[in-house]
């Protein structure tokens, strides 16, 4: 059975750079025969700011709003995730925080890797996101892809030059897949 990994594009901003690394990581995953990859763009899941009557941790997976149910159903399909995010003002976008906070049990016991970009390569945002995902009972992997000063990594056509990013990407993907297999197996035997 294939491992299903969702790549979550964590910015909805106009003219965002995030499309480039998200598509690159998605294509790497798609080329792997043991992986079923899916690219989720938060633009396609317009969640209102969290407005459910119960917290996701205490709702038992019951979501009142249709947008929340749609997001929960989609997130529940995956064995693991790779989040692609910019760093805005030393933090991550509000739309990404809202998407993470909207559901709970659907994230539980699944691995997550990060691809971040910004002036510092998004290192600060990944530190913050690791704290958040642990509270969601996720397993953040050690290796991340940090795209430092991304505007210097674009060729003359505006394509992302990934040569310097490949090793970390391969390591991160390997860790996400390992944990996804182990955690999926643990769920079936417990």
Nearest-angstrom radius of gyration? Answer: 16 Å
By DSSP (H or I, 4+ residues per run), the number of helices equals 5
Q: Element order, helices and strands? A: EHEHEHEHEEH
**Binned strand content:** 15-25%
Helix content: 25-40%
How many DSSP-defined strands? 6
Number of domains: 1
Q: The biggest beta sheet, please? A: 6 strands, parallel
Query: What spatial form do the alpha-carbon principal axes imply?
Result: globular
Gross CATH architecture: 3-Layer(aba) Sandwich
Q: Which homologous superfamily in CATH is the superfamily?
A: Flavodoxin domain
Tell me the structural class. alpha/beta
Low-pLDDT sequence parts: none
**Mean of all residue-level pLDDT scores:** 95
N- to C-terminal distance: 19 Å
What is the CATH topology?
Rossmann fold
CATH C-level: Alpha Beta
Q: What does this 3D model show about the protein?
A:
Helix content is about 35%, strand content about 20%. With about 190 residues, it is of the alpha/beta class. Strands 1, 2, 3, 4, 5 and 6 form a six-stranded parallel sheet that branches. The longest helix has 24 residues, at about 165-190.
Question: In a few lines, what is going on in this structure?
Answer:
The chain has a single domain, classed as 3-Layer(aba) Sandwich (Rossmann fold), CATH 3.40.50.360.
């Amino acid at each position: 059975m294939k491992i299903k990994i969702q790549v979550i594009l964590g910015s909805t901003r106009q003219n965002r750079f995030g499309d480039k690394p998200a598509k690159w990581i998605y294509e790497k995953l798609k080329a792997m025969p043991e992986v079923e990859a899916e690219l989720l763009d938060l633009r396609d899941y317009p969640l209102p700011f969290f407005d459910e009557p119960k917290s996701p941790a205490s709702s038992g997976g019951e979501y009142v709003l249709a947008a929340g149910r749609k997001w929960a159903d989609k997130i529940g399909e995956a064995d693991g995730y790779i989040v692609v995010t910019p760093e805005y003002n030393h933090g991550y976008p509000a739309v990404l925080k809202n998407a993470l906070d909207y559901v709970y049990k659907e994230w539980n016991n699944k691995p997550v890797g990060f691809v971040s970009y910004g002036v510092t390569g998004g290192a600060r945002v990944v530190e913050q996101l690791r704290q958040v995902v642990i509270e969601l009972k996720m397993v953040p992997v050690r290796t991340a892809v940090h795209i430092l000063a991304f505007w210097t990594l674009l060729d003359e056509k505006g394509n992302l030059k990934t040569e310097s990013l490949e090793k970390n990407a391969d390591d991160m993907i390997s860790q996400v897949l390992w944990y996804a297999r182990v955690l999926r197996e643990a769920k079936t035997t417990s």
